[in-house]
C-alpha cells in the first residue's frame, strides 16, 4: 500500500517520537507494533542501524511490503489492508535476520502474578520475573520481566541488540510496577542486563537481573538466560526419605566447605574445582569421613571473591565460578546419592553497593532503606534489605524457596540473624531509628523470620533452617505459633567462644576456668543448638585450630584431639570447617587449598582418622544423639573436678535403653584409678580414646572396664578408669 509518511506516524506527537528515538519513551507499545489506523494496519519498528526491513506473511513466507523509513534514526513503518500474522526480515550491514516482532505480542504476566508480587507472596518468582525461555503464541523466545516501579523507562539489553537500550524498551504493568517484554527467537545462554532511566530522566548504569538464574562468573557482571529444561534428578529415594523431624532427632555432623578452596588444581593455574569435579572428589571424601551434611559457604552469585560469598547479589543464581546451574544441581544430586545432605549459607541481611546490582535499582531505594540509619551497614559497607516492603520480603522468601525446591537443597543456614533482629546492631546512640514502640527490636525482621520459616516448613517438609544468631534472643527455635522465630537449629556461638577460650589456655590455668566448659549446659536446652567450629574461627589472624592449642607439638595435637572428642560427646549437633579434620597448620586462605599434604605426617592423619571415628560412633549410638535436644538424654557424670580439669558426661538413648560415658582429662597428667560413678552395673566398653596410637597418642587405653559396687557421684556403682593425658574417652555402658 502506498501510504503517506504522515499517515504512518498518525497519532504520534513530536515529543513522543523524539522520546522513542532518544530511548526515553516509557510506553513503546503505544508507538511500536501493529496499530489500526483509518481502516488499515500500520506496523512500526524501531531498529537503529538497520538498512531496510520487509514485512513477511507469517503463513506463506512471502514479502507483503517493504517498510518505509519513517525517521532516519531507524524508525520504519509499513501498512497493510488488514491485520495479519507477520514476521520481519531485517537487513543489517553484516547480514539478514528474520524474526517475529516483539511488539506484536499482548500482555505477558497475569493479573494474579502481579497481585502476588505486590503482596510479597509470589513464591515462584523465578518463573515469573527475570528471563524465562518459553513459547508465546507458538513462538519460542525469552520473556523478560523486572520489578522497577519508579523507573521512567526500562529496556532489556544484550548481545542480541548490541547492548543498545533504544532497541528493546519494555512495557510497564502499572498494577505491579513490573516491566515486561517477550523477545522472539532468543534462547538460553544469552547474556543480558536491564537499562533503566529513572524518574528524573537519568540513565542508570546497566543493571544485572535481580532474579537471574544464571550469571557470568566474576569479574564479568551480565546475567544469563538460564535453561528452562528441568534437571533429571535421581534422588527420589532421598527426597522421600526421613522427614525433617526424624533427621533432626538423628546424628547431624556438618562439614563446612568453601567450594573455591577445598581443593585447588596446582598444575592448572591453582584453579578451583568445578561442581562436577567436586561431586567426584568432595562427595566421596565427606561420605568416607562420616559427615551427614556438607554446608557450603554462600554459592549465590557474588562480585567479590574475598567476601567468601557473604555479599551476594544474585540470590537466585549459583555462582558461575564453578559451572552452570545444571552442574550445581548435579552436585546436589550426587550428594544425595551418597547419603549426604546439602546445606547452603544464605544471606538475607544485606547486599553490596555495586552500581550494577540492587543498589538504587530504579533510581530509588527500592530494595534498601532510604535512611542510612536503617539502610546502611557500616561494618560491611553494605546495604540492608527493607523488610517493611512486601515486594522485598517476597523476593527474599522466593530466593530461599528457589534453592530448596529447584535445587533440592536440604537446609539453609541464615547468616547474620542478630544484625537483622536489632535496629541498633553495631550502631551508636543516635545512629539508629527505634521501632514504632520506641524499642530496639526490628519488628519487621521478626515477622519476616516467622513467615519465612512457616512457608519453608509448609512447602519443603524435607528442609531445615539454621540461624547464626549470636545473642540471647529468646525463642529462635520455637515455632512461630508459640512466639518463636521458627528456626530448626541455632548455632551455639556462646559454647564455641567459651570452649575455645578454655582450650587455648595452658593446662596449668584451666582449673581456674573450669566453669567455662560447664556453663553451656545451663542453657543447652533453651534452644535446639548446633556446636559450630566454623570458618570464622580460623581467619583474620585467629590462626588454625591446631595453632590455637597450647604446649609443644605433641601437646597441641593431644589438646586438639581431646577438644574435638569433647565436642562430639557434648549435646548439640556438630559442625566443623574444612581443614580442621586434618589439623591444618595455617589459618584458612580462600585463595589456596586445604593443606592436604600434611596427611603425609602421622599426627595429622591421626586427627583425620579420629574425626572419622567420632562421626561413626555418633551415627551408631542413639545415646549420643538423643540428648542433643532432649535434657533427659544428658547428665553430668562429674562436673566439679576443677582441680584435675576432668569433665564427665553421661549420654542416654530414649528410655535410657543405652548409655555412653564421655570423660575428658584436660591436663597433661595421666590419671590412674580415677573413680567415676555410673548408672548401670556391668562391663563398660571403651569405644574411643583420643590417646590411642592410631590417632597419634601415647597408647593409654582402658579396654573393657567392670563396674564396682563403690558409690561415687551419687551413683551406687562406679568405674576405676585410666584417664590419658590431654585426652577424651568414650565408654559404652551395658544394657540396663
Automatic annotation (TrEMBL):
<dbReference type="GO" id="GO:0005829">
    <property type="term" value="C:cytosol"/>
</dbReference>
<dbReference type="InterPro" id="IPR006047">
    <property type="entry name" value="GH13_cat_dom"/>
</dbReference>
<dbReference type="InterPro" id="IPR004193">
    <property type="entry name" value="Glyco_hydro_13_N"/>
</dbReference>
<dbReference type="InterPro" id="IPR044143">
    <property type="entry name" value="GlgB_N_E_set_prok"/>
</dbReference>
<dbReference type="InterPro" id="IPR037439">
    <property type="entry name" value="Branching_enzy"/>
</dbReference>
<feature type="domain" description="Glycosyl hydrolase family 13 catalytic">
    <location>
        <begin position="256"/>
        <end position="601"/>
    </location>
</feature>
<feature type="active site" description="Proton donor">
    <location>
        <position position="468"/>
    </location>
</feature>
<dbReference type="InterPro" id="IPR006407">
    <property type="entry name" value="GlgB"/>
</dbReference>
<comment type="similarity">
    <text>Belongs to the glycosyl hydrolase 13 family. GlgB subfamily.</text>
</comment>
<dbReference type="InterPro" id="IPR017853">
    <property type="entry name" value="GH"/>
</dbReference>
<keyword id="KW-0320">Glycogen biosynthesis</keyword>
<keyword id="KW-0119">Carbohydrate metabolism</keyword>
<dbReference type="GO" id="GO:0043169">
    <property type="term" value="F:cation binding"/>
</dbReference>
<dbReference type="Pfam" id="PF02922">
    <property type="entry name" value="CBM_48"/>
</dbReference>
<dbReference type="Pfam" id="PF02806">
    <property type="entry name" value="Alpha-amylase_C"/>
</dbReference>
<keyword id="KW-0321">Glycogen metabolism</keyword>
<keyword id="KW-0328">Glycosyltransferase</keyword>
<dbReference type="GO" id="GO:0003844">
    <property type="term" value="F:1,4-alpha-glucan branching enzyme activity"/>
</dbReference>
<dbReference type="InterPro" id="IPR054169">
    <property type="entry name" value="GlgB_N"/>
</dbReference>
<dbReference type="InterPro" id="IPR013780">
    <property type="entry name" value="Glyco_hydro_b"/>
</dbReference>
<dbReference type="GO" id="GO:0004553">
    <property type="term" value="F:hydrolase activity, hydrolyzing O-glycosyl compounds"/>
</dbReference>
<dbReference type="InterPro" id="IPR013783">
    <property type="entry name" value="Ig-like_fold"/>
</dbReference>
<dbReference type="Pfam" id="PF22019">
    <property type="entry name" value="GlgB_N"/>
</dbReference>
<comment type="pathway">
    <text>Glycan biosynthesis; glycogen biosynthesis.</text>
</comment>
<keyword id="KW-0808">Transferase</keyword>
<protein>
    <recommendedName>
        <fullName>1,4-alpha-glucan branching enzyme GlgB</fullName>
        <ecNumber>2.4.1.18</ecNumber>
    </recommendedName>
</protein>
<comment type="function">
    <text>Catalyzes the formation of the alpha-1,6-glucosidic linkages in glycogen by scission of a 1,4-alpha-linked oligosaccharide from growing alpha-1,4-glucan chains and the subsequent attachment of the oligosaccharide to the alpha-1,6 position.</text>
</comment>
<dbReference type="InterPro" id="IPR014756">
    <property type="entry name" value="Ig_E-set"/>
</dbReference>
<feature type="active site" description="Nucleophile">
    <location>
        <position position="415"/>
    </location>
</feature>
<dbReference type="InterPro" id="IPR006048">
    <property type="entry name" value="A-amylase/branching_C"/>
</dbReference>
<dbReference type="GO" id="GO:0005978">
    <property type="term" value="P:glycogen biosynthetic process"/>
</dbReference>
<dbReference type="Pfam" id="PF00128">
    <property type="entry name" value="Alpha-amylase"/>
</dbReference>
<comment type="subunit">
    <text>Monomer.</text>
</comment>
Amino acid at each position: 500500500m502506498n501510504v503517506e509518511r504522515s499517515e504512518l506516524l498518525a497519532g504520534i506527537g513530536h515529543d513522543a517520537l523524539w522520546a522513542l528515538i532518544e530511548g526515553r519513551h516509557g510506553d513503546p507499545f503505544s508507538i511500536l507494533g501493529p496499530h489500526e489506523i483509518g481502516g488499515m494496519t500500520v506496523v512500526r519498528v524501531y531498529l537503529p542501524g538497520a538498512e531496510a526491513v520487509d514485512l513477511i506473511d507469517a503463513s506463506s513466507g512471502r514479502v507483503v511490503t517493504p517498510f518505509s523509513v519513517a525517521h532516519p534514526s531507524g524508525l520504519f513503518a509499513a501498512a497493510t489492508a488488514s491485520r495479519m500474522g507477520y514476521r520481519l526480515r531485517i537487513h543489517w550491514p553484516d547480514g539478514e535476520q528474520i524474526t517475529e516482532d516483539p511488539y506484536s505480542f499482548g500482555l505477558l504476566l497475569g493479573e494474579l502474578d502481579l497481585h502476588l508480587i505486590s503482596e510479597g507472596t509470589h513464591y515462584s518468582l523465578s518463573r515469573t520475573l527475570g528471563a524465562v525461555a518459553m513459547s508465546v503464541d507458538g513462538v519460542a523466545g525469552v520473556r523478560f520481566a523486572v520489578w522497577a516501579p519508579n523507573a521512567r523507562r526500562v529496556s532489556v539489553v544484550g548481545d542480541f541488540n548490541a547492548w543498545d537500550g533504544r532497541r528493546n524498551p519494555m512495557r510497564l504493568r502499572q498494577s505491579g510496577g513490573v516491566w515486561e517484554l517477550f523477545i522472539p527467537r532468543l534462547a538460553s545462554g544469552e547474556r543480558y542486563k536491564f537499562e533503566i532511566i529513572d524518574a528524573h530522566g537519568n540513565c542508570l548504569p546497566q543493571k544485572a537481573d535481580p532474579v537471574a538464574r544464571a550469571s557470568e562468573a566474576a569479574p564479568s557482571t551480565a546475567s544469563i538466560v538460564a535453561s528452562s529444561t528441568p534437571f533429571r534428578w535421581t534422588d527420589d529415594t532421598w527426597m522421600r526419605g526421613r522427614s525433617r523431624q526424624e533427621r533432626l532427632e538423628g546424628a547431624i555432623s556438618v562439614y563446612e566447605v568453601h567450594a573455591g578452596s577445598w581443593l585447588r588444581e596446582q598444575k592448572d593455574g591453582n584453579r578451583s574445582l568445578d561442581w562436577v569435579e567436586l561431586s567426584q572428589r568432595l562427595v566421596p571424601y565427606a561420605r568416607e569421613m562420616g559427615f551427614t551434611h556438607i554446608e557450603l559457604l554462600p554459592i549465590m552469585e557474588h562480585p567479590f571473591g574475598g567476601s567468601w560469598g557473604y555479599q551476594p547479589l544474585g540470590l537466585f543464581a549459583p555462582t558461575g565460578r564453578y559451572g552452570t546451574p545444571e552442574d550445581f544441581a548435579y552436585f546436589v544430586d550426587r550428594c544425595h546419592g551418597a547419603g549426604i545432605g546439602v546445606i547452603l549459607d544464605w544471606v538475607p541481611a544485606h547486599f553490596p553497593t555495586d552500581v550494577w546490582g540492587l543498589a538504587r535499582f530504579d533510581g530509588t531505594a527500592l530494595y534498601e532503606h532510604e535512611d542510612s540509619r536503617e539502610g546502611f551497614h557500616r561494618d560491611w559497607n553494605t546495604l540492608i534489605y527493607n523488610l517493611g516492603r512486601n515486594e522485598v520480603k517476597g523476593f527474599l522468601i522466593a530466593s530461599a524457596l528457589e534453592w530448596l525446591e529447584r535445587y533440592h537443597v536440604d537446609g539453609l543456614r541464615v547468616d547474620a540473624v542478630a544484625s537483622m533482629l536489632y535496629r541498633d546492631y553495631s550502631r551508636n546512640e543516635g545512629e539508629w531509628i527505634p521501632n514504632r514502640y520506641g524499642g530496639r527490636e526490628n519488628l519487621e525482621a521478626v515477622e519476616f523470620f516467622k513467615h519465612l520459616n512457616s512457608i519453608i516448613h509448609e512447602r519443603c517438609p524435607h528442609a531445615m533452617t539454621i540461624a547464626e544468631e549470636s545473642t540471647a534472643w529468646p525463642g529462635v527455635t520455637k515455632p512461630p505459633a508459640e512466639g518463636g522465630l521458627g528456626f530448626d537449629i541455632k548455632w551455639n556461638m556462646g559454647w564455641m567462644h567459651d570452649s575455645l577460650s578454655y582450650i587455648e589456655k595452658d593446662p596449668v590455668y584451666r582449673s581456674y576456668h573450669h566453669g567455662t566448659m560447664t556453663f553451656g549446659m545451663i542453657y543447652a536446652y533453651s534452644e535446639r543448638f548446633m556446636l559450630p567450629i566454623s570458618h570464622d574461627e580460623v581467619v583474620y589472624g585467629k590462626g588454625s585450630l591446631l595453632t590455637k592449642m597450647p604446649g609443644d607439638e605433641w601437646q597441641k595435637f593431644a589438646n586438639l584431639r581431646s577438644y574435638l572428642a569433647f565436642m562430639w560427646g557434648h549435646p548439640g549437633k556438630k559442625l566443623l570447617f574444612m581443614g580442621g579434620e586434618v589439623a591444618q597448620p595455617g589459618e584458612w586462605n580462600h585463595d589456596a587449598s586445604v593443606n592436604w599434604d600434611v596427611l603425609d605426617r602421622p599426627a595429622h592423619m591421626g586427627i583425620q582418622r579420629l574425626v572419622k571415628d567420632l562421626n561413626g560412633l555418633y551415627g551408631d549410638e542413639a545415646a549420643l544423639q538423643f540428648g542433643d535436644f532432649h535434657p533427659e538424654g544428658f547428665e553430668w557424670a562429674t562436673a566439679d573436678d576443677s582441680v584435675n580439669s576432668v569433665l564427665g558426661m553421661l549420654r542416654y538413648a530414649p528410655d535410657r535403653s543405652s548409655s555412653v560415658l564421655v570423660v575428658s582429662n584436660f591436663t597433661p597428667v595421666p590419671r590412674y584409678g580415677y573413680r567415676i560413678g555410673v548408672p548401670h552395673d556391668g562391663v563398660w566398653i571403651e569405644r574411643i580414646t583420643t590417646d590411642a596410637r592410631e590417632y597419634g597418642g601415647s597408647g593409654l587405653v582402658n579396654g573393657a572396664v567392670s563396674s564396682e559396687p563403690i558409690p561415687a557421684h551419687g551413683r551406687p556403682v562406679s568405674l576405676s578408669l585410666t584417664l590419658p593425658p590431654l585426652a577424651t574417652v568414650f565408654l559404652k555402658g551395658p544394657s540396663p
